[in-house]
Amino acid sequence: MTSTDVRPELAPGLAFPPGFTFGAATAAYQIEGAVDVDGRGPSIWDTFSHTPGATYLGHTGDVAVEHYTRYPQDVRLMADLGLSAYRFSVAWSRVLPEGAGRVEQRGLDFYRRLVDELLGQGIEPWLTLYHWDLPQALQDAGGWAARDTAARFADYAEVVHGALGDRVRHWSTLNEPMCSALLGHMSGQHAPGQQDPVAAARATHHLLLGHGLATQALRSRGADSLGVTLNFTPMTPATDRPEDVDAARRLDGQQNRMFLVPIATGEYPADVVADLAAAGAPLPVEDGDLAVIAAPLDWLGVNYYFESTVAVGERPAGRPTSFIGAEDVVELEPEGPTTTMGWGISPGAFTRLLLRIASQAPGLPLVITENGSAWPDEVSDDGAVHDPERTDYLLRHLEAVTEAIEGGADVRGYFAWSLLDNYEWARGYAQRFGLVHVDYATQQRTLKDSAHAYAEVLRAHREQG
Ligand code: IFM
User: Which of 463, 339, 353, 390 is CA-nearest to residue 7?
Assistant: First the structure.
């Protein structure tokens, strides 16, 4: 990328509707550390990250960025940036160390302190109940492949709402169930590290069922801003050959439609049901489940990072597919610049995606719950972190959101991923997504140039009234 690709002058021209929410997002295991403090029980990510060979250089979230103790400083950083909202997740095993039954009050107290700190700074908390860290005790009882886990999730949702419902308005059930189900049970690159298509299909359905049961439980407790966060990757066929077109259909089915369509319509897409059944991994739907899954929502969280081009072809050795029955499909290397994750950069695809979701889920307001990019950031001799690529990515994707809004999509908010550099799951600490740089040796926080650019967008928005 050349410096001419960077367009910070865009910032003042970005116009968002009045009341648009601007925030940043994180997740518990990626930032908290303190894994054995205040009675927290182990989660599947503790187990997985400590499994030899599972993560980059054996990195774990044991320490992460010490947010458990440093949260007051982190909330001050959010206030300095002018964020109006902060999206975070609750670690299930801090609240229910065995996943069910005994409640650990010290875990709830931590989130209450965090929420009070946010509210004190005028920052609206957006709480996610599940960002991939299933209590290990529930995994030992079958995990998401077991139907009972969905009911336990609804119980957990009630416990958290009982403690925080008086001060947290915005609730999301799941973050990216596609990753929990398919990366966790099909490719095995995430916890619990299984490679079992039957378990992957079962986990998919039980995650969605858990979402629906939790939504019903929270609604009956009076919650009025309920959503779920899905991760979308537009899939484009590499050629117009029928087999490539069908490969794109199959991956789009499992990546995008298998999660959105039942939530929006109460039906799984028929082609996906057929694909999974043909692969010997049927969705274990029981009577009444789909009505639960389609429990009415107030907003849909959209996570977007990149688009993918797919074709039928031979997969590289050692790269198992995340998609059921798709061993014959490859995702091509992106053309053009890539982030350090190896992901391409396609803001235009983001606009098209938002318009497509708006048409597939009409009437459901959209909130961008994650969008961001990883780069090899360093603190420079001048003490700053110059990250022109992230600034460019951020501004171009914000512009893409404004274009979707102009095109008719009802987008209400944008959360940058991530507030802080943090533990990027199996990729460890090698991937930096933060607006704020973290020196992992000292835990020192430094606002990157992109953070200043984001603050400038927010300031301009506030001034526009
Ligand atoms: O870090 C993750 C996050 O936990 C979920 N969405 C994608 C991000 C970047 O990979």
Answer: 390
For residue 90, the domain's CATH number is 3.20.20.80
pLDDT band at 175 (very low <50, low <70, confident <90, very high): very high
C-alpha span between 207 and 134 (Å, rounded):
11
pLDDT value at position 464?
83
Please give the residue range of the domain that contains residue 448.
4-464
Q: Choose the catalytic residue: 176, 307, 331, 399.
A: 176
Average pLDDT over residues 428-449: 98
Distance CA 217, CA 297 (A): 12
Look at strands 436-439 and 225-232 and give their pairing: unpaired
Catalytic, 370? Answer yes
- Nearest-angstrom CA–CA distance, 321 and 318: 10
pLDDT, residue 267, reads 98
Which residue lies with its CA nearest to atom 9 of ligand 1? 424
Ligand 1 atom closest to the Cα of residue 132 is 4
Could you read off the pLDDT of 370-402 as tens digits, one per residue? 999 999 999 999 999 999 999 999 999 999 999
Domains in the chain: how many in total?
1
* Residue 374: CA count within 13 A, CB half-sphere: 16
Let me know if 314 is a catalytic residue: no
Q: Is residue 433 predicted with pLDDT exceeding 50? A: yes
pTM of the model: 0.97
- Looking at ligand 1, which residue's alpha carbon is closest to its atom 4? 27
Element holding 86 (H helix, E strand): strand 85-89
Structure-block tokens of residue 104: 């650990």
State the angle between helix axes of 148-164 and 197-220 in degrees (0 to 180), rounded to the nearest 10.
Answer: 30
Which of these is catalytic: 307, 370, 389, 399? 370
